[in-house]
Design brief:
alpha+beta, Creatine Amidinohydrolase, five-stranded antiparallel sheet, four-stranded antiparallel sheet, 4 helices, binds magnesium ion
């Protein structure tokens, strides 16, 4: 099912998106060398509850995970890229950390992810990976708007990833979002322009390019959730939720100026 939100629901989506962005920003500023992933999960739990929101993850039990996720945020380090289950791990200088967060506020979900390097080290490979997924995300957003097709977004995202030399995995990509976190349409991270569902005002989409240095294959961690690169190489992931409006595409997972 594809949901088209009313203008009132879109306003609520903007609040959900701002909350996700603000929590991610707060967690990014607090995550440092010596921070444990379980601490990040606890900070996320408190910030979500304080805001009167609910986690989309805690009870989430999809076919691709083992049992309810049980945590409030995905934390993926280095070779871990998607669905990273927080565990007892202490961050070190140069770790590439991805935080992926989805919450529901007043009935509407928003979803975003950021990758960044912990500490002062700046390994060139990690910098390139992160910068490429961010550029792919920007290209996907630039291709979005009323009348555009899903294939246009997928093509824009995939072109940036492949031109940077990364093989594109099509098992996991972006998705529609609204009253629940994962909805149709699926937004693969590669595709052909001019194909697929035609975007309409009121549609919410989560776009999420991700990349691995030297493989397109994933392996599942012993925790039944965390997806890692098959070769152990580093990975990155960037995600925003966008709203299709009459005028174009609006990124909703940005901090709200009203809240500051
Ligand atoms: Mg998502």
């Amino acid at each position: 099912m594809i949901e088209i939100l009313t203008p009132a629901e879109l306003d609520r989506a903007r609040d959900s998106g701002a909350l996700v962005a603000e929590i991610l920003q707060a967690l990014r500023s607090r995550a440092a060398i010596g921070t444990n992933l379980l601490e990040i999960n606890e900070w996320a739990r408190v910030l979500i509850i304080e805001a009167g929101a609910t986690s989309c993850y805690v009870d989430y039990e999809p076919s691709f995970g083992r049992g309810p996720f049980g945590h409030y945020i995905c934390t993926a380090v280095n070779d871990a890229v998607l669905h990273g289950k927080p565990h007892d791990y202490t961050l070190a200088d140069g770790d590439l950390l991805t935080l992926d967060l989805a919450v529901t506020l007043r009935g509407i979900a928003a979803d975003a992810a950021i990758s960044f390097i912990v500490g002062d080290a700046r390994p060139a490979e990690s910098v390139t990976l992160i910068e490429t997924t961010e550029r792919a995300l920007a290209a996907g957003i630039a291709a979005a708007g009323p009348g555009a097709r899903i294939g246009d977004l997928s093509h824009a995202i995939g072109s940036v990833l492949s031109e940077a030399g990364f093989a594109v995995n099509t098992e996991f990509g972006g998705h529609g979002i609204g009253s629940t976190m994962h909805q149709d349409p699926h937004v693969p991270n590669t595709g052909r322009p001019g194909r697929g569902y035609v975007l309409r005002p009121g549609l919410l989409l989560a776009l999420e390019p991700w990349a691995m240095v030297d493989t397109d294959r994933l392996v599942t961690d012993a925790d039944g959730w965390t997806l890692r690169s098959a070769t152990g190489c580093r990975t990155a992931h960037s995600e925003h939720t966008i709203a299709i409006t009459e005028d174009g595409a609006e990124i909703i997972t940005v901090p709200s100026p009203v809240r500051d």
